[in-house]
Design a protein that fits this description.
2 domains; alpha+beta; Four Helix Bundle (Hemerythrin (Met), subunit A); Nonspecific Lipid-transfer Protein, Chain A; two-stranded antiparallel sheet; four-stranded mixed β-sheet
Amino acid sequence: MAEQDIFAALKAEGESVDHLVAGLAEDAWETPTPAEGWTVAHQIAHLAATFRMAGLAAAAPDEFRRMMSQMSDSFESNVQAAMAPYVAQPPHRLLAAWRDERATTEKALAAVADGTLLPWLVRPIPAPVLAAAGMMELFGHGQDIADALGTQREHSDRLRYLVEFALRTWDFGYLARGLEAPDTRFQFRVTAPSGALWQIGPVEAEQTITGSATDLCLLVTRRRHRDDLALKTAGDEADRWLDLAQAYRGPAGPGRRPGQFAR
């Protein structure tokens, strides 16, 4: 993972999601998204809260740790509490707040010294990996917004960072369900938006997933059901993984229904 390029990709992905909402009429911010109970405003508020946390982890680690120590044992309660100050704002102020949080965090992550581990939700991680996690958040919640608004998204090869992050977090789906991750290794053989072929993971891996990089990203962010994606597998565990895959910790949630976004 090229450490400087990931920060540029994070900025570009943020601008892409920003483009989805920048010109919205005020009432459009109340449009329901596929995430039950969440409007477009909730999606942006969640992103603002997430970027604020990442910015603190990068620039003020002790403050981040204090914030974490005050959280409850309820994942859902913590999510709602973090985004509450943002979602309460009118759309123009929410958009401005999200832009401020993004800009602050992008600068803070890029300024972290190479090799430094930052505190995060599960374990300390380097700044480039935290930036990749931010890419995952932007991709997933950006897709929710696009689906709500009936907009088709155009993706670029910066998705490679998310594909690499998906391999790094391949076991999260097992852990989220209280399952033991198998003693195996995966390889992704996916086609980039540009048409390039990416082979990510050990070449000797017997468990493989093939298809488009975009479909893989939709799968691991749980924005599409596997039945609505053109992903193929080799190996029994790879096939099982398509039912479990997620690139984030915390509850898996219901995901999307088969046929909900059939092509």
